[in-house]
Amino acid sequence: MNKHLLTLHDWTTEEILDTLELAKQLKDEQKKGIEHHHLKGKTLGMIFTKSSTRTRVSFEVGMYQLGGSALFLSSNDIQLGRGETIYDTANVLSRFVDGIMIRTFKQSDVEDLAKYGQIPIINGLTDLVHPCQILADFQTVIEKKGKLSGLKMAFIGDGNNIAHSLLYGCAKVGMDLAIATPEGYECDPEVVKNALSDAEKTGAHITLSHDPKEAIKDADAVYADTWVSMGQESEKEEKVKIFMPYQINKELFSLAKPDAIFLHCLPAYRGYEVTEDVIDGPNSVIFDEAENRLHAQKAVMVKLMK
Ligand code: CP
Ligand code: NVA
Predict the structure, then answer these.
(1) How far is 272 from 270, CA to CA, in rounded Å?
(2) For the whole model, what pTM was predicted?
């Protein structure tokens, strides 16, 4: 088993599927009230340099349910925010805690923590990727559709961290993925290259275009994310104009399969990337998806920290 979760590209197909299976088991056990203190006495440090509702709460509750505890470390409060190096932070925290979840801007900071520290590092979102989110999304798709491989996912919007992790994840599990972004907002070429190379091995069919109608056609799962990611607030006005044709509304959604599910990592901005009739409509599974952050991440922690 890989020692860290930095991107889904680093994980094998088997590691991803095993983790999803464990996530299902942990969810079933939790619903039945069966205790599973796999991480009794262990502590997770959680470094945040960006806001969070789901990631913070699900990791903290998850550690508690696993018999351990979690420490919230805001970058405003720890010395990292005042210029202490990643090298020193990684070495010091490794003496205190059993794993670190970090949400920050630069992917290289997460990679450096893993390089210099002696404990498992979990990526809780960077500007580049959001692997924990996609594991929860996959758990949700399996619950609703019974499988991943052989289905088509459509992502319409910004070529951002969610799009990148979908590329990495879908390529690994053999799920078809169609991404439509506006011109100038395409996915990172390096991520695309890596994903296409993995997709060759699993048979996942990956397409990248500027055409939302083509991307969503006959999709089994349709995914939206905010047009304005954390740190891009100043670009909002400009992006809203450019992205309007990429809004997932009833008309666009009707081009997917009739039983297609609607996914959104949340937080959502109704009236922008998605309309109310879709996100609050009968095909939306957003709250199951949010709940699965808890179960999927518990599985990740058990795999990496037990
Ligand atoms: N989807 C997600 O990561 O949500 P938060 O920003 O609330 O953690
Ligand atoms: N793309 C969004 C995802 C939030 C979970 C962001 O980075 O803000």
Answers:
(1) 5
(2) 0.98
